[in-house]
Amino acid sequence: MAAEFSTSQFDLAVLGADTPLGEAVLSNLDEHEVPIGRLFALTMNEPEDNVSFRGEDWPCMAATEFDFGQAQAMIVAGRGAAISRLIERIRKERPTMPILEADAVDPAAAVIAARVLKPIAALAGLTSAEAFVTLPVSLAGKEGVEELVQQTRGLFNMESPEPEVFPLQIAFNLIPKTREKQVPDYESQLTQTTARLANGVTVGFTAVTGPLFFGAAMALHVRTVPALDLAALRNALRHQDGITLMEDDHPAAMPTPATDALGSQDVFVGGIRLDGELCRLWLVFDPITLDAARMAASVENWIDKPATSMLT
């Protein structure tokens, strides 16, 4: 099953290979032809599924029973208490093995907010910024997607939903991101990351999980001094890498998570409205694709800088 490998290749374990993020990471590694020898597709669930990589099906293996001495590096494409405990054990057993966790990459919502704010800041001074973000259930893994499917079907059949992955009903609902014990506050993390990426710009974030399978949306409100010129703003956004501007009075031209963002690393901007010094923008993006791309880039960096890893 596994391809033969040489000294120029390394053996990679992907924990959560069967999650939406894990599958997207594998697709990105495949697209960039990262020289992986053996792939170990690990799951915290029953190992019933296969994942696709380099045109082959790779069977998933139980992570709790895997000998991590077989892998030279590991990607963690899942979250949760059980995964955290497993990672802690692996770090003790193999302290020099490169391990990249999903939470180690900058959250996509902060990345795209900074991407849009930087050209605005180049045009005018920013006095305040607020963002309302709706995130998809796929960020909670395959279980999050399945819970939305099951609850939606159940509600149509007049059944009461039973939340398991999410704290409340997610079908036809919005759930605010809440502070979890021993976990950094997500909204504060977005604020801090955006400030770092956008040269100190401070954004107040309100984040919710919504009944979206994939793709996310953000309403971004920015106050500037002086007021922005609409033509200049559109021109600046149009020439910024990673931004697709969609400006049209027709409703079908407005970007949406399902019709535009999926599978793209761009942020799609539309609905620009200027009211004096207040600028309102509508953004859609695919957090899974963005997170996967940055995780794959980190793996490529291990290869580019082998002195800092065991990939030699």
CATH superfamily of the largest domain: Dihydrodipicolinate Reductase, domain 2
The level 1 CATH classification of the largest domain is Alpha Beta
Task: Assess the beta-strand content as a share of residues.
Answer: 25-35%
What does the main sheet amount to? 7 strands, mixed
Radius of gyration: 21 Å
Overall SS class: alpha/beta
Number of domains: 2
Identify the strand order in the major beta sheet.
Answer: 9-10-8-11-14-13-12
Give a structural overview.
The chain is built from eight helices and 14 strands. The strands form three sheets. Strands 9-10-8-11-14-13-12 form a seven-stranded mixed β-sheet. A five-stranded parallel β-sheet has the order 5-2-1-6-7, with helices on one face. A two-stranded antiparallel sheet has the order 3-4. Helix 1 packs across helix 8. It has 312 residues and is α/β, with parallel strands linked by helices. It has two domains: 95 residues, 3-Layer(aba) Sandwich (Rossmann fold); 143 residues, Dihydrodipicolinate Reductase, domain 2 (2-Layer Sandwich). 38% of the residues are buried. It starts with 9 loop residues before the first strand and ends in an 8-residue tail after the last helix. It is 32% helix and 26% strand. Strand 3 and strand 4 form a beta hairpin.
